[in-house]
Amino acid sequence: MAGSIETPETPEALFAAAVRAINEKFSPGVLEHTQANHPDLYGRIERALDGVNDTWARCIGPGAGLDSFKAALRAWYNSLMEAIKLYEGGTNER
């Protein structure tokens, strides 16, 4: 397509996009609330972030597949979105 610039799909670009999307909804206190009130979910968030880091390390190099990284990133994103919803619901009830 003339005049368009294709953004390469890299772990860095995918992670940056996920962080931007999380930051749009994230509030101070979400992780503290989750750790105190939903420790299982907090553990899932930690494990999901470990998964992102582990798969990111394996995605380095030309031609490296991104499917596992995308899946790990999606798990981390989804667990944080769940924590944000629980936090918002809990703070709205006070």
What form results from the Cα inertia axes?
Answer: elongated
Largest sheet: none
Portion in beta strands: under 5%
Count, helices: 4
* Mean pLDDT over the residues: 86
Order of helices and strands: HHHH
Helical amount among residues, as a percent range? over 70%
Cα-atom radius of gyration: 16 Å
Number of domains: 1
* End-to-end Cα distance: 53 Å
Written overview of the protein:
This protein is mainly alpha-helical and 94 residues long. It is 73% helix and 0% strand. The protein has one domain (27-92). It has four helices and no strands. The model has no long low-confidence stretch (mean pLDDT 86).
Give me the secondary-structure topology.
Layout lengths: L10 H15 L4 H8 L1 H20 L8 H26 L2
Helix pairs in contact: 1-4, 2-3, 2-4, 3-4
Task: Write a compact overview of the structure shown.
This protein has 94 residues and is mostly helical.
Please name the defining characteristics of this protein.
94 residues, mainly alpha
